[in-house]
Amino acid sequence: MPHLSSRITSINGGGSDGWDVFYRARAMVAAGEPVIELTIGEHDIGTDPAILDAMHRAARAGHTGYASVPGTPALRDSVAARITQHTGIPTGRDNVLITPGGQAALFAAHVACCDPGDRALFIDPYYATYPGTIRAAGAVPHAIPTRAADNFLPDRETLSNAAIAHNATSLLVNSPNNPTGTVYPRDALEGIAQAAQDHDLWVISDEVYDTQIWEGTHISPRALPGMEARTLVVGSMSKSHAMTGSRLGWIVAPEPVIEKLTDLATNTTYGVPGYIQDAAVFALAQGDPLEDAIMAPFRRRRELALGILGGQNLVGHIPCQGAMYLMLDIRGTGLSGEAFANALLDRHRIAVMPGESFGTSAAGHIRVAMTVADDAFASALGTICAFARTLAPAG
Fold first, then answer.
1. Could you read off the pLDDT of 226-252 as tens digits, one per residue?
2. What is the predicted pLDDT for the residue at 393?
3. 149 in a domain, yes or no?
4. CB atoms inside a 10 Å sphere around CB 83
5. In what residue span(s) does the Aminotransferase class I/classII large domain sit (predicted)?
6. Is 158 exposed, middle or buried (0-12, 13-18, 19+ CB in 10 A)?
7. Which of 52, 165, 315, 386 is the most buried (most CB within 10 A)?
């Protein structure tokens, strides 16, 4: 047959996509084996029935045809109002493009900012799809390493050096961070903003976990001085409203960027189903009480985890300030994150993500999703710590 394009065959960079342990666990589950899955950020509570009822009403009312490609006016207005309220930056309908989930928004944002061959920076550790998304958009990904000792926070000097060394066009940041749980403080974000302005970078800010804050404050780079005109914010209903399967996200950006992104959407996704958008309008209208209820299990499980981890001294952890994950340091066992995760799955049927799935900076760590019932989560985390003790070298 004719050959496939180099763009699509190079998405994974010639290696693994980072999901190998996850695929193994799912194969076990499909074969009927009981596995506690602590791998992906999938809520265990499901989408609120009231949101599903709103979706059903909208579909039954006939909103099943083509919807406006950049998003329905009602939803764009709702997202704009939410962004204005949360960040203090006046945002209107024309600053918003609705996308089929946050992942599609990440791809579209890089297509908007990068020409083929441009260098696109991102922070290591990173969400596993970042480098592949950048390659799919035709750009060249470059990871900026961080250190566990610094809670995986980037510093301005390293950012500036990377921008110069790679003649970069864009910088992708993510706070609250997946996989580390770190919430970027103001000084780190100011360093990002200064580097972006010094080196004329677009900043693509993945803020899908902005409602899951356990310590500190979420600050959007777009809200910092001089950044509104060079920042594209990626958001989503997936984490804030447990609507992962509804595939409803957005990009917030300057109006000229949204105009061109609408051209891209017209020629790729052709918009998002109207009845799903209507359900999102309903969900956003419920305000903080609904969002608080959705994030409450993760706040609770974080407290459980801190108690369990505080009772031992072998498995370390990066302070979990936000998002639905723990980043655990298992270097004391002498194993890599990948080796530990595979052994844990084989011996205890507990599935976690190796740190190496998220870059070289997270080697020797594992990411644990707090996405099962409290008692099962506490039991699994206790087993992880006990298993680590059996692996630790004597003395």
1. 999 999 999 999 999 999 999 999 999
2. 86
3. yes
4. 25
5. 34-375
6. middle
7. 315
Give me the pLDDT at residue 14, please: 72
Are residues 273 and 315 both part of a single domain? Answer: no
pLDDT confidence of residue 16: 73
User: What DSSP character marks residue 12?
Assistant: T
Q: Are 329 and 368 in contact (CB under 8 A)?
A: no
Look at residue 395 and tell me if it is in a domain: no
Whichever domain contains 346, its CATH number is 3.90.1150.10
- What would the two tokens of residue 150 be? 């610094």
Which pLDDT band holds residue 185 (cuts at 50, 70, 90)?
Answer: very high
- The encoded tokens of residue 268 equal 């790729």
pTM for the predicted model, two decimal places: 0.96
Cis previous bond, 90, omega within 30 = no
Amino acid at 323: A
State how far the Cα of 240 lies from the Cα of 208, in Å rounded to an integer. 8
The 10s digit of each residue's pLDDT in 355-377 is 999 999 999 999 999 999 999 99
Q: Give residue 15's domain range.
A: 6-46+289-388
pLDDT tens digits along 74-132: 999 999 999 999 999 999 999 999 999 999 999 999 999 999 999 999 999 999 999 99
SS3 313: coil
Question: Which CATH number belongs to the domain containing residue 260 in this structure?
Answer: 3.40.640.10
Q: Which two tokens stand for residue 186?
A: 């103001």
Which residues, 6+ apart, have CB-to-CB distance to 263 below 8 Å?
Answer: none
Which neighbouring-strand residues pair with 248? none
Percentage above 70 pLDDT, the chain: 99
* CA-based R_g, the chain, Å: 21
Q: Would the CA dihedral through 378, 308, 356, 131 be positive or negative?
A: positive
The DSSP-derived string for 206-260 is: E-TTTT-BSSS----GGGSTT-GGGEEEEEESTTTTT-GGG--EEEE--HHHHHH
